[in-house]
Amino acid sequence: MTSTREQILHLLKTDGPMTVSDLAEKLDITEMAVRRHLNTLERDQMIGSRLLRQAMGRPTSQFYLTDKADEYFPKNYHTFALSLLEDIEETEGPEAVERLFERRKDRLTKEFQDAFRGKTWEEQVKTLAKLQDEKGYMVRLEKRSDGSYELTELNCPIAQVANRYQQACACEIGWFRNMLDADVDRTECKAKGGQHCVYVIKPKNN
Predict the structure, then answer these.
(1) Does domain 4-70 have CATH number 1.10.455.10?
(2) Where are the alpha helices (DSSP H) in the chain?
(3) pTM (predicted TM-score)
(4) What is the spatial distance between Cα 46 and Cα 40, in angstroms, rounded to a whole number?
(5) What span, in angstroms and rounded, lies between the C-alpha atoms of 79 and 162?
(6) DSSP 3-state assignment of 34?
(7) CATH number for the 79-203 domain, one of 3.30.1380.20, 3.30.70.260, 3.40.50.300, 3.30.420.10?
(8) Residues 19-35: pLDDT tens digits?
(9) Cα–Cα–Cα angle for 151, 194, 25, nearest 5°?
């Protein structure tokens, strides 16, 4: 993070909508300084605001990222990929797109199987989190009180593809299940209106 504005964008991405006082506390700067940066980001259409009603006191503004700001974060897809999938669907039918993502899942399984082989399930989970983070998913991994893990992908590098072809989401969770000696459930999906993609991972004997 090279500037306060970048830090604000990162905080809104990782922590979700925040108020001026929330941001001031996180950044350890004055609320006046935060407002100055927010005004610039709002002018550049990187953030929006909405009123947050509170149990006591007056409503306060809560700030969130716009679609334009989403382009600031890591992406490794191109519009070419989406156009290509649309061409395949038009000429070969939706079944061809389905087969393509199934093939991708199998390829990923073979490509990374050595990285998971011989590891405990917890080591496998951490390996998966590291791989996804390196691919730009901005992964947050937390161990829960019951011993399971919650893996949150704060960014989706293939968001445009996944929004149009949710077979991409099925491919991802299928690959997770292939690689991990664990039960994997997706509890939130960005392509289906969630804020992030969230997975709960438990050992198979639970």
Answers:
(1) no
(2) 4-15, 20-27, 31-43, 67-70, 79-92, 94-116, 121-134, 159-164, 167-179
(3) 0.64
(4) 9
(5) 12
(6) helix
(7) 3.30.1380.20
(8) 999 999 999 999 999 99
(9) 75
